[in-house]
Design goal:
The protein is α+β, with helices and mostly antiparallel strands and about 60 residues long. The protein has a domain at about 20-60. The protein has helices spanning about 5, 45-60, and strands at about 25, 30-35. Strands 1-2 form a two-stranded antiparallel ribbon. The longest helix is centred in the last third of the chain and has 13 residues, at about 45-60. It starts with a helix and ends with a helix.
Length: about 60
């Protein structure tokens, strides 16, 4: 067996359906969030959510 064929990893197939619904963008960094665009209020990405939680925990 040839080593190159054994170690080759096929690229995952991506389709339009894999992308999911249109996601809202973060109000701080403009990155996509885990929330759909129909979500009301200020939406944050996971990174900004974590950073906001750390800031509020340290603010006393």
């Amino acid at each position: 067996m040839e080593d190159a064929a054994y170690c080759a990893t096929p690229a995952p197939a991506t389709t339009e359906a894999d992308a999911g619904p249109p996601f809202a963008e973060c109000v701080l960094c403009r990155e996509p969030t885990e929330h759909p665009e129909s979500t009301r209020g200020a939406t944050l990405c996971p990174v900004c959510t974590w950073q906001e939680a750390a800031r509020s925990a340290c603010s006393g």
